[in-house]
């Protein structure tokens, strides 16, 4: 089997139900989700299977769901039938966030992204997730999409923030506050 098809040589790509330009807003949205998935894979590779088995399992689940997000956004026309991403995934992310946040020290100010290698890549995941969310918002202004994908990406970026802090906390590395930050979080 050849991995190249030559069908994209003219600047178009296939989506579910047709072909579009490679810089189409739909491709930008699910392409950024694909980029995020790669960074999540890097985070998985940095998780210690002993001290971070729970996080590793969550991240692997998220990688599957990011493929589902991309798939849901790849439809040229509104899909007849259920999408892969639903509100239950958003609710589950909220439960995970609450569980990880319970491990984190109180937070009042903005923090600098960083700390351990794992926390640093999780902050990269957070920012790429926010970009994926922005690309999906742009797409949603032009075409009908599965709105649960937008909610999922919004909550997922919160998840990455929480677990980046947990990664530091478990490794006993203190988050560094942004020195000119006012108090922005309520304890």
TrEMBL record:
Q: Which reaction does it catalyse?
A: 2 cob(II)alamin + reduced [electron-transfer flavoprotein] + 2 ATP = 2 adenosylcob(III)alamin + 2 triphosphate + oxidized [electron-transfer flavoprotein] + 3 H(+); 2 cob(II)yrinate a,c diamide + reduced [electron-transfer flavoprotein] + 2 ATP = 2 adenosylcob(III)yrinate a,c-diamide + 2 triphosphate + oxidized [electron-transfer flavoprotein] + 3 H(+)
Q: Which InterPro entries match?
A: CblAdoTrfase-like (IPR016030), CblAdoTrfase-like_sf (IPR036451), PduO-typ (IPR029499)
Q: Name one GO molecular function term.
A: corrinoid adenosyltransferase activity
All copies of the Cobalamin adenosyltransferase-like domain together span 3-167
Write one Pfam family the protein is assigned to.
Cob_adeno_trans
UniProt-listed Enzyme Commission number(s): 2.5.1.17
Lineage top rank: taxon: Bacteria
Report the SUPFAM superfamilies cross-referenced here. Cobalamin adenosyltransferase-like
Biological processes, Gene Ontology terms: cobalamin biosynthetic process
Its annotated pathway reads:
Cofactor biosynthesis; adenosylcobalamin biosynthesis; adenosylcobalamin from cob(II)yrinate a,c-diamide: step 2/7
List the Gene3D superfamilies hit by this protein, alphabetically.
Cobalamin adenosyltransferase-like
Q: Does the keyword ATP-binding apply?
A: yes
Q: Which UniProt keywords apply?
A: ATP-binding, Cobalamin biosynthesis, Nucleotide-binding, Transferase
Say yes or no: keyword Chloroplast present: no
The UniProt subunit note reads as follows:
Homotrimer.
Family indicated by similarity: Belongs to the Cob(I)alamin adenosyltransferase family.
Q: What is this protein called?
A: Corrinoid adenosyltransferase
User: Which species does this protein come from?
Assistant: Paenibacillus anaericanus
